[in-house]
Amino acid sequence: MKQQRLLVPTLRDVPGDAEAASHRLMLRAGLIRQLSSGIYSYLPLGMKALQHIQTIVREEMDRAGAQEMLMPALHPAELWKASGRWDVYGPELMRLEDRHGREFALGATHEEVITTLVKDEIHSYKKLPVTLYQIQTKFRDERRPRFGLLRGREFLMKDAYSFDRSASGLDASYQAMYEAYVHIFTRCGLQFRAVEADSGAIGGTDTHEFMALADIGEDTIVHCPSCHYAANLEKAIGRITNEPSSLQEASSPSSVHTPGVTSIKQLSQFLAIEPTQIIKSFAVKSQGSPAIVLIRGDLEINEIKLKHVLGVQEVEMLSEAEITALGSVAGFIGPIGLTGCKLIADTSIQGMVNAVVGANTADYHLQHVHVERDLGELTYADVRNVGHGEHCIHCDTELAFARGIEVGHVFKLGTKYSESLGATFTDENGVAEPMIMGCYGIGVSRVLAAVIEQHQDERGIVWPNAIAPFNFHLLTMNVTDEHQLALSEELYTTLQRAGFTVLWDDREERPGVKFNDADLLGFPLRITIGKKANERIVECKERRSGQSYELSVDQLLPHCQSFFK
Amino acid sequence: MKQQRLLVPTLRDVPGDAEAASHRLMLRAGLIRQLSSGIYSYLPLGMKALQHIQTIVREEMDRAGAQEMLMPALHPAELWKASGRWDVYGPELMRLEDRHGREFALGATHEEVITTLVKDEIHSYKKLPVTLYQIQTKFRDERRPRFGLLRGREFLMKDAYSFDRSASGLDASYQAMYEAYVHIFTRCGLQFRAVEADSGAIGGTDTHEFMALADIGEDTIVHCPSCHYAANLEKAIGRITNEPSSLQEASSPSSVHTPGVTSIKQLSQFLAIEPTQIIKSFAVKSQGSPAIVLIRGDLEINEIKLKHVLGVQEVEMLSEAEITALGSVAGFIGPIGLTGCKLIADTSIQGMVNAVVGANTADYHLQHVHVERDLGELTYADVRNVGHGEHCIHCDTELAFARGIEVGHVFKLGTKYSESLGATFTDENGVAEPMIMGCYGIGVSRVLAAVIEQHQDERGIVWPNAIAPFNFHLLTMNVTDEHQLALSEELYTTLQRAGFTVLWDDREERPGVKFNDADLLGFPLRITIGKKANERIVECKERRSGQSYELSVDQLLPHCQSFFK
């Protein structure tokens, strides 16, 4: 393609509100433009990259035996009411009425539609298992759209749904998708981790998130540098070994006056001890009954784990009045002497000696607390976020932390939708059973942003070969020079005939402008045709390595073929 | 692909509400399923055919120099308000609010979005011309969705928009799209006509509709069998030569008593004359002033032409009271003796002699009317639909009529949107000018239905090679027979390695079921592996010609390669 007429509106300035590198670069390189908050148009170069990702997704999904189809964006409200999600999905689900006043949702996801379809069309075990997928536009009215394509309101998604007759069938379907995802993200050039995730309220069991590693990522990943353990922070577990206390031992807890000292930070300064020697006590309630959660002072409660332990959907903090009613004082809560409420001890306090806890009296704490000796029989549970310094439960290596962008998600749904929507099959014995489902998503447009987030430098994008909008950027230094123009035409034709894609910068612009744009657009190989055109010599520059070298025209094609092999 | 697990839910029965052949066959062959009125899911086979059409569209658009992009479905209301269409588009435009109460339209077309984008990104004549396109889901809340994919509420469309600096530039862009459309529809195997159409209220000038010929089509095409003239009925023109009257001539009009005779049919029976000897008089009003439209008795008024002639947007029929107020009587209106209203004479009455007209008196007509002699100086205009028997104005051949499905539309928009939305460019002299636009649509999903409408027989679909979901249907008569199974496996692999697509019917079904399904699904070549498998002989049947013949396995591949060349 010739650049003169191609709609690639590059920008010199970084738009002020674009926080993520990918967002800035996609705007600067003319890949996308915003139409409304979280809603973007893909310009020709962005579209090409997006199509390369779609092709990879299709090839790997097909290879895994999934069947492509296409479902509508307009969903009758009845389906979402039948599954129960019309009421619980909240304002993220966009809703509208047609000319007859019938309610519709704009598809945020397609469990309802696919389950209803499969219910109507598949009745026998003989037609199972089946995995169906589509690449389709999704609508989610995010409260806070941000980071360009990373969190948008209208976006391109690949969603797949598997239907099996048994749990082991689901395992196999799930595994096939898991492997397809590994291939897809690898081919896209992404550095990623498949992490265990919490299955949350969707009601499934196993679930993995595919996280592209990036500092801008909104999710924290905990992973083991030695074995392959990796999990989302909400799900990750680690092992803590408590060091002996530096405080002098004593035979029983004793009170210490700590006036106005209510935070862990203040307390550790006041007593000159580490936060790891303090036990934090949180007063919470769930379904009306109060509980005290004990956790080591340097660590944070993981609300999702806590809910699982309590077996509830919601947990609230107690108010000051409720804490007083329990016989304690906000800021000085502790496990000793409190009656009438459950104690939940995070495993991080197991074996702590000489610990400090709240005294349930204003301005006092207790020190010299030995957990095993002084707190009676505790119910231990893992209710914390893994902290720095924790070790892998599989291989005891110290765990590492990273930030990630969720680009994919595989999920064992089980029978939630098949039961609520009546998707059953008849087995060999004529017995009707609910189909066992899995669902599998890839944020196709988000992958594009994640690729750029990982592949860029201070000058612009550095495309992986498989995703680059064009293989080559052909730069003619002086389009009014006969030799340069003739050689450019020749190479433009030759390279395209050889199956490569070429963007020819045929603009009447200064070399500096062309070089800057070429770096910004970041195609793998730049070929510059300048003064040596009459000697049939061109300059070749690799965007990623920065290496540049002169080649004769005769050498060029073999060189390119090996470069892109 | 193997049929056992593929989601191809064929139906034996024709769904009762499906009127169009394509709709019936797409349901029966398991290509689509309805989710809601006018809203469909594409199942795997339908999806494959749809993708083949998309590939053809992309290739031809790219070849014509158009650039692919992708715009959102959610359009901020402000854009539609700026163009003035928010208010005039009516209930076909689906509307919704986001969580913050901001209004959006679901894109029914993208003139507003593309014009705003181009306005922001292109400022100089140097970047023009440019033609941008997308293949994208459109939403139009049709009052009466029908015929399956032919008139849906959510459908796939290719829309393109050209931006030029001059009218001659637009001519060239328009011509490039026109030619691309000819290639696209030809490659899709459609019988079609590019017909002149009325540019209507959109405000453009030239426009052509691409009509796939089909009896189910909602549009009437008038075309000349000799020259290449073809037009939509609303736009078509023809030539009429009036025969001399069979009534005895008289020197002046005379009254005839026609009690209760108010229709052309009654009048022609009552007087024993042809409708071609009667002049119909319609009383209409536009912008408050009345007019009488005169047209030959066998012909119909073309409202669009009439509005053009009157230079108005709306025309109404006069009420009985208004007719009385004019000094006439409903059912007996005529041109003679009426004052205070304009006469508009369709060219079909030119030269009529011995004609019959209403007498403006209850139960009376006038006969022996000679138009030239008795009606004074008339303003002639073409305000009729072309009637049967009219002749081509270019070559005088009698015009023919056909029904068509509108599959494409090319349109010279001019500056309607660039002016209302402020899309200007600066010319060589630094003067700002509005860009001159064209828009070009193809109903991608409608093309799929039109292809099936044209390519089917009583047994099922007869796919054109370029669109067929699979090249081959490989039928194994007895999947429990070792020889048949082995040979099927071998051919399945061989044909796919050779680059063909194969659906292998590996189901445990009776031969009759398999043959019927193969006819219904209608792939170009059916290969049946039966009892002669051990001799390595298969049966090959061409779906279109119905020819079948035996081939040895060695002959098969060369035969297929030449068949699909």
From TrEMBL, chains A, B:
Keywords: Aminoacyl-tRNA synthetase, ATP-binding, Cytoplasm, Ligase, Nucleotide-binding, Protein biosynthesis
The protein's name in its UniProt record: Proline--tRNA ligase
Any one GO cellular component localisation term in the record: cytosol
Chief place of localization: cytoplasm
Gene3D superfamilies cross-referenced by the UniProt entry: Anticodon-binding domain (3.40.50.800), Bira Bifunctional Protein, Domain 2 (3.30.930.10)
Superkingdom of this protein's organism: Bacteria
Record localization: Cytoplasm
Domain notes: Consists of three domains: the N-terminal catalytic domain, the editing domain and the C-terminal anticodon-binding domain.
Gene Ontology MF terms in the entry: aminoacyl-tRNA deacylase activity; ATP binding; catalytic activity, acting on a protein; proline-tRNA ligase activity; transferase activity
InterPro entries membership: aa-tRNA-synt_IIb, aa-tRNA-synth_II, aa-tRNA-synth_II/BPL/LPL, Anticodon-bd, Anticodon-bd_dom_sf, Pro-tRNA-ligase_IIa, Pro-tRNA-synth_IIa_bac-type, Pro-tRNA-Synthase_IIa_type1
Assembly mode: Homodimer.
Substrates-to-products reaction catalysed: tRNA(Pro) + L-proline + ATP = L-prolyl-tRNA(Pro) + AMP + diphosphate
GO BP, one annotated term: prolyl-tRNA aminoacylation
EC number: 6.1.1.15
Biological classification of the source: Bacteria, Bacillati, Bacillota, Bacilli, Bacillales
Role: Catalyzes the attachment of proline to tRNA(Pro) in a two-step reaction: proline is first activated by ATP to form Pro-AMP and then transferred to the acceptor end of tRNA(Pro). As ProRS can inadvertently accommodate and process non-cognate amino acids such as alanine and cysteine, to avoid such errors it has two additional distinct editing activities against alanine. One activity is designated as 'pretransfer' editing and involves the tRNA(Pro)-independent hydrolysis of activated Ala-AMP.
Family as reported in the entry's similarity comment: Belongs to the class-II aminoacyl-tRNA synthetase family. ProS type 1 subfamily.
Organism the protein comes from: Paenibacillus roseopurpureus
Domain Aminoacyl-transfer RNA synthetases class-II family profile, first and last residues per copy: 33-464
